[in-house]
Amino acid sequence: MSNSILELRNIFKSYNGKDYVLKNINLEIRKGEFIAIIGQSGSGKSTLLNIIGALDTPTKGEVYFDGENISKYLSKERAVFRNKNIGFIFQFHFLLSQFNILENILIPNWIESSNYSNEKKDEALKILEYMDLKEIAYRDAQNVSGGQQQRVAIARALLNNPQIVLADEPTGNLDSKTSQQIYKLLREINKKYNTTFLIVTHNPEIASMCDRVIEISDGEITN
User: Do 217 and 25 form a contact (C-beta atoms < 8 A)?
Assistant: First the structure.
């Protein structure tokens, strides 16, 4: 039985109908992999991540998640799929200053269910405790350090128990010591929960710590 969780078949992406940002991408991702995606700026890394995360659709080709073709999903179907299956971590944490730490983590659940859940609150507090952040749960989001803010963003990505976490330069604004701590935390989560991680990075040291490295050049996988 295949352990594949995501498969991209003959993916092309164009924004103007003629110049392709992605060209004939074929990629299989297995459950629990910890993968680095590398390449020069403009090589197509973020576009690839957007298609994997159902933020965008391919111009040609098909995307299969757990055996189901999701590439033809309508916008609303993609939104439901993302909230249920995909966690996102970005270079900028995008915490909302008008909410406290706990509220920032609960926002994706509020979007999904449109109500307040004590059960989800308890889950969020458990995640914060696992990350040694429970003591700042009710602190304003702007009153914590950069490393803490990024860990909060990771907690937010994990709340709905996603099968895949997509991280786009998640430590780009952090110093090297804090970056190492963040990647160690991501790896711990990967091992503990068997969560699949795809991490866009320019850092060769971080890439070397991953199970597999996928290099993109001019819209094509080169390794």
Answer: no
- Could you report the per-residue pLDDT of 164-205, keeping only the tens digit for each? 999 988 777 677 787 788 888 889 899 988 999 999 888 788
Question: What CA–CA distance (Å, rounded) separates 61 from 217?
Answer: 19
Tokens representing 176? 């090297």
202, 25 in Cβ contact below 8 A?
A: no
Amino acid of residue 109? N
* Three-class DSSP labels, the chain: CCCEEEEEEEEEEECCCCCEEEEEEEEEEECCCEEEEECCCCCCHHHHHHHHCCCCCCCEEEEEECCEECCCCCHHHHHHHHHHHEEEEECCCCCCCCCEHHHHHHHHHHHHHCCCCHHHHHHHHHHHHHCCCHHHCCCEHHHCCHHHHHHHHHHHHHCCCCCEEEEECCCCCCCHHHHHHHHHHHHHHHHHHCCEEEEECCCHHHHHCCCEEEEEECCEECC
Residue written as token pair 């786009």: 168
